[in-house]
Amino acid sequence: MVVNCEQVWHEVSDYLDGEVGVELRAAMDEHLRACKGCSSLLAGMRNVVSLYGDERMVEAPLGFSYRLQRRLEENSHPTRRTFFGWAVAAAATVLVAGSFEAARSYGLGRTPRSAHAQAGNHVPPDLMVLVYPEGKTFHAAGCPFILDKKNLRPVAAQEAQREGYVPCVRCMKQYLS
Amino acid sequence: MPESATPLGHPARQTSEAELVRRVRDGEHDLFYELIRPYERRVYSAAFAILRNTADAEDAAQEAILKAFKHIRQFREEARFSTWLIQIAVNEARMRRRKDHADLMEPIADRPDESGVYTPRDFADWREIPSEALERKEIREKLAEALASLGEIYREVFVLRDMQHLSIEETAETLGISTASVKTRLLRARLMLRDLLAPGLGGPWMSRLSFEKGAKPW
């Protein structure tokens, strides 16, 4: 069996997937050995398959897992808001209202983790940022000042500030006065 | 058709996954996130490939995962859990696309003559691209752009087969087309992507990358 270039173009994808018969494969191998154009085509296609097949091509937006988990929680416990639940929620509202004044004079919810860092100005409360347990600051994805990449946790900026994190001087500098 | 080269077929994972499925079915709902966690990014990217918009894709992906949770009793244990999840995501995304009448705005290349002969462009040798190139956002964006420019029918097949690592049969079943169509569209998609990327990846982008090496991103 002998194949020409056009036949190779037609079968090259199946060839790559191991979906061609023994005889055709042998004929294609022979053609590919001799034909520079077709072997370059095969190499290019191999490149395409391996690049797109890489795990790193599959990305989700920052905070996706966090938002997903919250949505799952809301949906997996739809019956939890019983009378007791509502009573707790009502009590919490009273407490929150009462603590508002105290919180205002205190600034952030907790003492900042770093005595030297500045608290941020006008950080959008919903901005998704990254924090890690040993850190003092919150970051944007890809910031070179993130030291502990393994334990990163996405969280809303508001929440990060409540936990005492302050804006990173490098990647969040627009929020520092 | 050999099993795809993902770690999904690993026996240890299969056991623990089957165990998780059973426990979620038996009412341990909190374990569901544990079950889908390895696949959440894949679910998102499947939805994104169809909707091509981050907000819509996120919404469709989350909705698909919620549906999987609600209908976990319908999951047949002989199937791969990841494939089942991806199928739900593809259906969800396609349903939303229809609702938005986005198909009216699809490029003309979407209604092609599938049987037509496609002649690949002639390129000099495309040297092998090191996978480290994917560390560069710029390269990932070029690849995503090229993929987004493909017609719908090619993009769907390519994403399921080459990015989600579904088998040809699973891809056919998910999209409701024949295995022969999967193969034809896959060939075309791979050829088109190669034609789109070869001039850049074979030369200018890569040399510019080495030139920029060491440059700070800010």
Describe the structure.
- The complex is a heterodimer of chains A (177) and B (218).
- With 177 residues, chain A is mainly alpha-helical.
- Chain A folds into three domains: 5-56; 64-106, no CATH class; 109-177, no CATH class.
- Helix content of chain A is 48%, strand content 7%.
- Chain A contains six helices and four strands.
- Chain A has helices at 5-16, 22-34, 36-52, 64-76, 83-106, 157-162, and strands at 128-131, 137-138, 153-156, 166-167.
- Chain A has a two-stranded antiparallel ribbon.
- In chain A, helix 2 (22-34) packs across helix 3.
- Chain A is elongated and about 80 Å long.
- Residues 100-109 of chain A have low confidence and may be disordered.
- Chain B is mostly helical and 218 residues long.
- Helix content of chain B is 61%, strand content 0%.
- Chain B has ten helices and no strands.
- Chain B has helices at 11-25, 32-36, 40-51, 54-70, 81-99, 137-148, 152-163, 168-175, 179-201, 204-212.
- Chain B is elongated and about 60 Å long.
- Chain B starts with 10 loop residues before the first helix and ends in a 6-residue tail after the last helix.
- The model of chain B is unreliable at 1-9, 106-113 and 208-218 (pLDDT under 50).
- Classes of the chains: A mainly alpha (177), B mainly alpha (218).
- Chains A and B meet through helix 1, helix 3 and helix 4 of A and helix 3, helix 4, helix 6, helix 7 and helix 9 of B.
Question: Topology of this protein?
Answer:
The complex is a heterodimer of chains A (177) and B (218).
Chain A: H1 5-16, H2 22-34, H3 36-52, H4 64-76, H5 83-106, E1 128-131, E2 137-138, E3 153-156, H6 157-162, E4 166-167
Helix pairs in contact in A: 1-3, 2-3
Chain B: H1 11-25, H2 32-36, H3 40-51, H4 54-70, H5 81-99, H6 137-148, H7 152-163, H8 168-175, H9 179-201, H10 204-212
The assigned structural class of chain B equals mainly alpha
Overall geometry of chain A: elongated
Question: In terms of quaternary structure, what is this?
Answer: heterodimer
Quick one: overall form of chain B?
Answer: elongated
Got a strand count of chain A? Answer: 4
User: Can you identify the CATH class of the largest domain in chain B?
Assistant: Mainly Alpha
**Helix proportion of chain B:** 55-70%
Number of helices of chain A: 6
Q: Mean pLDDT across all residues of chain A, rounded?
A: 80
Count of domains of chain A: 3
Unreliable stretches covering 5 or more consecutive residues of chain B: 1-9, 106-113, 208-218
H/E topology pattern of chain B = HHHHHHHHHH
Major sheet of chain A: size, sense and barrel closure?
Answer: 2 strands, antiparallel
